[in-house]
Amino acid sequence: MHVVVTGALVENDAVLLVHRRPTKRAYPDVWDLPGGQVEAGESELQALAREMHEELG
Q1: How many Cβ atoms are within 10 Å of 45's Cβ, its own excluded?
Q2: Could you tell me the residue ranges of all domains in the chain?
Q3: Is 0.85 surpassed by the pTM of this model?
Q4: E strands, 1-57, in order
Q5: Cα–Cα distances in angstroms (integers) from residue 55 to residues 2, 7, 11, 16, in the given order
Q6: Contact by Cβ (8 Å): 35, 29
Q7: What is the pLDDT along the chain (57 residues), one digit of tens a residue?
Q8: Is 16 helix (H, G, I), strand (E, B) or coil?
Q9: How far apart are CA 53 and CA 2, in angstroms?
Q10: Which pLDDT score is estimated for 7?
Q11: For residue 1, what pLDDT is reported?
């Protein structure tokens, strides 16, 4: 079973979204919340921090 995390960054009633590339196989060219799969040995919070860093810099 795969465990995934997603997070919403909210500031002043604005939500930060990421745009999925048109070439993505699943749900291409849509706006989404940042997130992804939890890797082995990683907590959900660690995975979310890593995914946010990977996707948002």
Answers
A1: 11
A2: 4-56
A3: no
A4: 4-6, 9-11, 14-16, 18-19, 31-32, 35-37
A5: 19, 12, 18, 12
A6: no
A7: 899 999 999 999 999 999 999 999 999 999 999 999 999 999 999 999 999 999 998
A8: strand
A9: 20
A10: 95
A11: 85
The Cβ of residue 8 has, within 10 Å, a number of other Cβ atoms equal to 10
pLDDT at 32: 94
Element (H, E) at 44: helix 44-56
Tokens in use for 7? 């997070």
Cα-trace Rg, the chain:
12
Q: What's the pLDDT at 44?
A: 98
Q: Report residue 36 as tokens.
A: 């992804």
Task: Determine if residue 10 is left, alpha or beta; phi over 0 gives left, psi from -120 to 50 gives alpha, anything else beta.
Answer: beta
